[in-house]
């Protein structure tokens, strides 16, 4: 592979092949979305497997998944190559996430219980603790737990699943490692919780949409700085 892969944990004993393939696909997807793997880069099976500490099989299956998503394409006799990622692609991904998230937010503002709001406060405090420890992995998990609880409070499980599916393209690690993003996320969550207690649907929807708009701007700025679209 022409560009170095990011560190990958050794697979745990007993991890299913499908799960390992998903983890490899997730890592490669993030590397493509953040510009670490540039358009035109060939992803070599053996090199990628060695760099990630896995066998060739999950890498091959991961590339099949990414090919179905239009992130790589297979060139005969040459291998898998990263497809160009345009600014419009990034904007479209975040538009779709934001549109679904705002629909869920409107429902949450009407249906969420006080107990579920209390749970969101606890999860936000867990996020604050993770940010204090400056642990990106823990921050990502805490942020995911907060939004998972928020979305599940709607009772619209299928729509929440669609949002989770699209959210695979959101490279959480670049946000989790940014202290400014962490501070903004905590403030936004607290404002969201307060709006939920007031049953202020408009504010809940606005704050939710704002999170995705901010995430899109941060990623686009990073890709601009990297020279991806020069």
From TrEMBL:
Membrane spanning segments where? none
Q: Where are the coiled-coil regions?
A: 106-133
Specify the HTH gntR-type domain's residue ranges.
18-85
> What InterPro entries does the annotation carry?
GntR_C, TF_FadR/GntR_C, Tscrpt_reg_HTH_GntR, WH-like_DNA-bd_sf, WH_DNA-bd_sf
Record bears the keyword DNA-binding: yes
Q: Which UniProt keywords apply?
A: Coiled coil, DNA-binding, Transcription, Transcription regulation
Q: Which SMART domains match?
A: FCD (SM00895), HTH_GNTR (SM00345)
Question: Pfam family of this protein, just one?
Answer: GntR
Q: Does the keyword Transcription regulation apply?
A: yes
Any one GO MF term held by the record is: DNA binding
PANTHER family reported for this sequence? GLUCONATE OPERON TRANSCRIPTIONAL REPRESSOR (PTHR43537:SF24), TRANSCRIPTIONAL REGULATOR, GNTR FAMILY (PTHR43537)
Record-given protein name: GntR family transcriptional regulator
State the organism named in the record. Mycolicibacterium holsaticum
């Amino acid at each position: 592979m022409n560009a170095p892969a990011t560190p990958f944990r050794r697979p745990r004993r007993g991890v299913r092949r499908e799960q390992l393939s998903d983890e490899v696909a997730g890592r490669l997807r993030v590397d493509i979305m953040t510009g670490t793997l540039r358009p035109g880069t060939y992803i070599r099976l053996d090199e990628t497997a060695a760099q990630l500490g896995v066998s060739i099989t999950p890498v091959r299956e991961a590339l099949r998944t990414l090919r179905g998503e239009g992130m790589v394409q297979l060139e005969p006799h040459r291998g898998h190559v990263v497809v160009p990622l345009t600014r419009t692609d990034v904007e479209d991904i975040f538009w779709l996430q934001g549109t679904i998230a705002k629909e869920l937010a409107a429902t949450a503002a009407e249906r969420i219980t006080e107990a579920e709001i209390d749970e969101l406060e606890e999860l936000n405090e867990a996020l604050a603790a993770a940010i204090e420890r400056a642990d990106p992995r823990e921050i990502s998990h805490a942020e995911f737990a907060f939004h998972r609880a928020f979305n599940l409070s709607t009772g619209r499980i299928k729509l929440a699943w669609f949002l989770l599916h699209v959210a695979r393209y959101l490279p959480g690690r670049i946000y989790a490692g940014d202290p400014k993003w962490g501070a903004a996320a905590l403030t936004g969550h607290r404002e969201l919780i307060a709006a939920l207690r007031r049953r202020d649907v408009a504010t809940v929807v606005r704050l939710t949409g704002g999170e995705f708009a901010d995430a899109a701007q941060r990623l686009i700025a990073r890709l601009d700085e990297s020279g991806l679209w020069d």
